[in-house]
Write a structure and sequence with these properties.
The protein is an all-beta fold. Helix content is 0%, strand content 50%. It contains no helices and 11 strands. Strands 2, 4, 5, 6, 9, 10 and 11 form a 7-stranded mixed sheet that branches. A 4-stranded antiparallel sheet has the order 1-3-8-7, with no helix packed on it. The protein starts with a strand and ends with a strand.
């Protein structure tokens, strides 16, 4: 059974850093692109970043470009989101999601992703 588990969230001051992890199990991780999404209180969920199954291709939302870096380790079946220069507006529940896609890169549309983790809270204080 496909399973995604996020970790690494927490409370950090503005300007600080966090690294989120998304551990996958129960499926052939190498064939899946993985995305990070977030949902702030009272707002719709939005796409943050996505990485192709090989790890060679990535995409970022404009709001996080230059501050966040997505990467993956297919041996460990884990995707990471390194978040630097955090701002209070980055406060949200962060989710990882997977889509079967052997090649190419999906967009940051949550409707394209069929499997989701439970989320991890990130809070950035000012």
């Amino acid at each position: 059974q496909l399973r995604l588990v996020e970790s690494g969230g927490g409370l950090v001051q503005s300007g600080g850093s966090l690294r989120l992890s998304c551990a996958a199990s129960g499926f052939s991780f190498d064939y899946y692109a993985v995305g990070w999404f977030r949902q702030a209180p009272g707002k719709e969920r939005e796409g943050v970043s996505c990485i192709s199954s090989s790890g060679r291709t990535t995409v970022y939302a404009d709001s996080v470009k230059g501050r966040f870096t997505i990467s993956r380790d297919n041996v460990k079946s884990t995707v990471y989101l390194q978040m630097n220069s955090l701002k209070p507006e980055d406060t949200a529940v962060y989710y990882c999601a997977a889509i079967f896609l052997v090649a190419g890169l999906p967009g940051l549309e949550e409707a394209d992703f069929g499997s989701w983790g439970q989320g991890t809270q990130v809070t950035v204080s000012s």
